[in-house]
Design goal:
The protein has 160 residues and is α+β, with helices and mostly antiparallel strands. It has two domains: 7-87, Ribosomal Protein S8, Chain: A, domain 1 (2-Layer Sandwich), CATH 3.30.1370; 111-155, no CATH class. Helices cover 26% and strands 18% of the residues. The chain has a five-stranded antiparallel sheet with strand order 1-2-5-4-3.
Length: 160
């Protein structure tokens, strides 16, 4: 799963420079230049491409402008495999991987300390303190737990 990036590799006008044209914009309308792996920080797609290219140990610099990636290769190195690396950037399911089953994604069963679900929903223990609260209920402010408990009580009295 995930979409492959269409990549066309073209040699640069100067030896040791390779240009990759893609069908995806990595920077929008901005230029980004990376001279080392330390420059390629952050979650942007262009920084991720630069990190992967620098990890090969064959790259001196990377320049990304929209859908164009220009790579300065170290002396004596080729761009072999770099197009495939860019092509696989957004692919997160590889052949042979098994997706998780529905049972794997289910949360753990709660223990018997929740008093029939009332504590997790802001019931009895929420008034006295947080000793009986579940981990999820501890993330909710106490006044909201109390307001929810009071609303449930009003509903029970009006519908019984």
């Amino acid at each position: 799963m995930g979409q492959l990036v269409a990549v066309t590799e073209k040699p640069g006008a100067t030896a040791g420079i390779v240009r990759f044209e893609t069908n995806r914009s990595f920077t929008g309308m901005g230029h980004e230049r990376f001279t080392s792996e330390d420059d390629a920080w952050g979650p942007s797609p262009s920084a991720e491409v630069a990190r992967r290219l620098f990890a090969t140990g064959r790259v001196e610099g990377v320049h990304v402008y929209s859908n164009m990636i220009t790579v300065d290769l170290m002396n004596g190195h080729t761009s072999e495999g770099m197009a495939d690396m860019i092509r696989e950037l957004y692919r997160y399911w590889k052949p042979g991987m098994q997706p998780p089953t529905f049972e794997d994604l289910q949360p753990e069963e709660a223990g018997d300390d929740t008093a029939g679900g009332e504590v997790a929903a802001g019931g009895g223990a929420a008034v006295e303190g947080d000793a009986g609260l579940t981990a999820a209920a501890k993330l909710v402010p106490m006044h909201l737990l109390e307001r929810g408990r009071a609303a449930r009580e009003r509903w029970r009295t009006s519908n019984s």
